[in-house]
Every structure is written in structure tokens, then in C-alpha cells.
Amino acid sequence: MRLDLLLMRTARAGDVDGWLRVLDEYLEETEEIGLDHDQVREEIANYLMSKGDFEKALPYAETAAESWAGWAMRCAATCNEGLKRWERAELWMRRISERYENSAHDWLLWVVRTGHGERIAAAGRAEEWLKTVGTQQATSTGVLVKAALIHILAERYPQAVECLRRSFELKPDPFEGHPLAVCADRLGDAGQRDAALQDVVSRSVHYRSSKTDRPRHDLIALAEVLQKVLTAGHVGRQQLDELRETVRRAKESERPHMNYFAGCLLDRRGEKDVAIEFLRAAAHDQRQDAYSVILARDELRRLGLTPNDIAPRVKVVEP
Asked: Of the candidates 27, 33, 13, 34, which has an alpha carbon nearest to the alpha carbon of residue 59?
């Protein structure tokens, strides 16, 4: 680790004003080589934002973003979002999507998550990426899931089903099996929906998460409960209690996904009010960039909720 970054991370426990003064002197007096100074500015901005001081963070974030480094522009977007400077925040997200192919859909996701910005233009950039990668021949689960997300936001459920089906065949992650069931359900394809849930129960137990090297048991448990709901043919108090308890017992990181998947299937069963309960829980999760959080917000808008009902909250995690 560079000495200046070590200083930044250890000095926080003491005199913050003095720490900032030392770093400002470093930025002023040392020669700028590569992205060194911008990394320091981004580190300072993230720290200040973690303390809620977005105004003070802004000049550091904006200056770093002038480098056009993806991480620096994302920092500037977050800071402007925290200040509700929506046009400026969108500008940085647009630049990220236009500059970096792997982030081509990030602008669209930002627009959907916040409810601000030019959705048609952002979707157009994501569609350009879809044409470039040619998902018909894709063998990367990352590409297929990203493509499925874009199709879902455009309500192209047959294409989303195809991408998710192929991705699940390559890697039986229940995170892909559940949305496959949701999309099939929206197409009225009960056979494919039920098969997807059964695959989550029977095949995903053999899948190991790259983060934990263990199966994603909470998502498998949700599939089992949803199977009971669908078999019963109605959503009674017992089924709802079991759904809520299954989500409550789950790891915090899995809850937004579980709430989103359950909410979508409940809505299709005519349980709009309960569906909104689950979808709102997903939409307000702190992991704001999670696909399920973004999709839940879009779903709530489709169900008639206003942006104020699902207002985004900026939370910057201290690095």
C-alpha cells in the first residue's frame, strides 16, 4: 500500500481537519504522476461522503472524475446524487457507460434506480451493447445475466427467459433460476416456471457461491416455499407467514433478491398489496446497486407507486 493511502486510512481516528490539511498539501506540493492524486481525491471524497458531508466531498470527487477513470466518475456521480444534483450525476453515469463497454448498462440502471434522467437514451446505449456482444453465441454467464436484465427492463420476457435459461445451464446459480421462473410466469408458461423452481431446489444445491464456497441455501428455501404457494393455488395466511419467515431468517445479502422474486410472483397471483410489501422491502435495501433492488423499484413504478414512495437513499460505504 502506498504511504499516502496508509496515512489516509490510519489518520481518520485522530484529527480529521489536520488529516485533510496534510493531504491537501500533498496534492498541492507533489508532482502528479498517473492517477495517484486522483486516487487520493477519491479516497477523501468517499470518506467525507461516509460522514454525510457531500458538499465538502464534491470538489475532490469532481476533480478526480476529470481523469475519466471509471471509479472516479462513479464517485462523482454518487456525490452529486447525494446532493440531488441529478443532471450532473447522470452526466457522469452517462460518460461511464459511453467510455466503458462493460459498464454500458450502468447509465440505464442508474436512471431506473433513481427515477431521474433520460431512460430512452440510456436504454439505447444498453441496446447498442447488446448488439455488440451478440448474446446468441454468448457463453459467459455474466454477459447472459446482464443481457437478461436489459431485456426485463424492456419487458422482453421471451428473450430474458432464453438468456437466463442458458446461463442457468452453464451455472446453476439460484439467483438466475428464480428470475427465470418469474419471467416464465409473466409469459403464462407455468411449465417452464415450475421447472425453473424445481431446478433451483434440485440442482442449485450443487452450486457453490464464489464468495462463500457454499450453496445459496436461502434462495433454495425460497423456491421450496414458492412451490407450496403455487401448488396450493391461492395465497393464504399460512403461505404468507412462511414466506415472511423464510426471508426474515435469510442472510441480509440475500433478502433483496428474495423479496423481489416473491413480490413478483405474488403480484401475478392477484396479491397486489402483499406484493408491494415485498417489493418495497427490496427497493429500500441498502445494497442499492443490486439488480434485484433496481428491478424492484421499476416494478413498483409499474404498479403505480410514485418516486417519493420509493425514493432512493445514497449510502456510501467507507473503503
From this structure: 27
Distance between CA atoms of 221 and 235, rounded to whole angstroms? 17
Per-residue burial over 58-96, b if 16 or more Cβ lie within 10 Å, else e, is bebbbbbbebebbebbbbbbbbbbbbeeeebbbbbbbbb
* Of residues 108, 121, 100, 85, the one with CA closest to residue 291: 108
Q: What is the mean pLDDT of each run of 10 residues along the chain (319 residues)?
A: 49 61 70 79 91 94 96 97 97 97 96 95 96 78 94 97 95 95 97 97 88 88 95 88 95 95 95 94 86 95 80 42
Give the DSSP letter of residue 103.
G
pTM beyond 0.70: the answer is yes
Give the number of other CB atoms < 10 A from CB of residue 145. 20
Provide the H-helix boundaries in the chain.
Answer: 3-10, 16-29, 36-50, 54-65, 70-82, 86-99, 106-114, 119-133, 141-153, 157-170, 174-186, 190-202, 217-232, 237-249, 255-268, 272-283, 291-302
d(CA 152, CA 129): 15
Amino acid at 270: G
Q: Give the C-alpha distances (Å, rounded to integers) separating 286 from 72, 110, 168, 240, 316.
A: 21, 15, 27, 24, 10
